Amino acid sequence: MSADPGTVDLLLPPARDVRVDGAPSPPVRAGRAGGPARAGLFLAGVLVLAVSVAAGTRIGAADVGWTDLGRVLGARLGLGTEPLPPLLDSLVWDLRLPRVLMAALVGASLAVCGTVLQAVTRNALADPYLLGVSSGASAGAVTAAVLPLPLPLALAGPGAGALGVTGGALVGALLSFGLLLALLRRTGLDSVRIALTGVVVGQLFTALTSLVLMASADADTTRALTHWLLGSMAPARWDAVAVCALVTPLGLAAAWLCANALDGLAFGADTAASLGIGVRRTRMLLLVVTAVLTSVAVATVGAIGFVGLIVPHGVRLLVGPLHRVLLPHAALAGAVFLVWTDALARIAFAPREIPVGVITALLGVPLFLLVLRRKGEL
Q: What is the 3-state secondary structure (H, E, C) of 166-231?
């Protein structure tokens, strides 16, 4: 079996050389932190996330102090604190807090998706955006929202509209990933091929999205959806947060239960099978999990790229590549990263807000090139 040394070096955790089909694989860097240190790092991450959510709720065009935030939470949670004036209370509770919580949930989802896809495809450049999965989900969501179906245009609203859009996003994500795997079936999964094929698949579904918009949507709908497709937390409301709060932990739990299988799959299908892993079944399960997580995120806030590329690489440097440790830390780091990225998107050009997907792309493209250069393919 041939192995991509750069990818194996990034993803796999053995403490000594391992022979696969008679060929020695390159030694792999061990995790940077031991068990107690990793537990402390995780608790610190939880604390940083809590502080980030509170700070992100305060940040915006209108000033909200720590005392104001405490009063809103106390009044809403029935702690007997004096409520704020209705306008300020609604700003914090109905707009900012669900937006920040949505950023945390979506960031965690995308980071987990990137971590899983990098192991399943054995490619350090894999994430839902680069592989075209986000574009497929966007095409499915837009199709469900725009075509004359008995569904209201409510990207983050309650009822059949939200379910229809999320279902359309899931179908689109699965179709795009299936097409990617079909195109790579004969050529293999090396870094350049999978990146280029992912770009092609993404462009195809982006073109289909534009075709649906131009052919079926009116001017106002086209303008709103075009802005949404760039990735924005502005549509986030409590009902959408509730859906993501249900799906994200379930997706993370499913991926974490497959942590040992992910460690084996990162060495390749033959090695995983020799370890007793049901390769086909496990791959299908993990691909469905990533498609569901991506679809729920895209159906709510649009396509946000590069989170699944940036976060896993940074977290591996801190905790090592074992997936039972890597996945929960990546989820925390992705949540913190997107909370602060969304805050930057709100204040960078205040009072005008820019889509958070623009910020993540500006940060992600240099890292994408850095990873390519490190692997000797640029």
A: HHHHHHHHHHHHHHHHHHHCCCCCCHHHHHHHHHHHHHHHHHHHHHHHHHHCCHHHHHHHHHHHCC
Please, is 271 exposed, middle or buried when counting C-beta atoms within 10 Å of its C-beta (0-12, 13-18, 19+)? buried
**284: confidence class by pLDDT, cuts 50, 70, 90:** confident
Alpha-carbon distance of 79 to 66, in angstroms, equals: 16
Amino acid in the structure at residue 302: G
Distant-in-sequence, close-in-space partners of 26: CB < 8 Å, separation ≥ 6:
3, 5, 8, 9, 17
Cβ atoms 241, 101 nearer than 8 A: yes
With cut-offs at 50, 70 and 90, classify the pLDDT of residue 182: confident
3-class DSSP assignment, residue 23:
strand
Tokens at 108, concatenated: 């965690």
> Using 50, 70 and 90 to split pLDDT, how confident is the model at 111?
very high
Single-letter amino acid code for the residue at 228: W
> Are 275 and 258 in contact, with CB atoms under 8 Å apart?
no
Average pLDDT over residues 80-99: 85
**Average pLDDT, rounded, for the chain:** 80
What's the rounded Cα separation, in Å, for the pair 222 and 182? 32
The model's pTM is: 0.81
Cα-based distances in Å from 212 to 155, 165, 231: 16, 14, 19
Closest to 300 in 3D by CA, of 116, 97, 163? 163
Q: Which tokens in the block code for residue 200? A: 């092609």
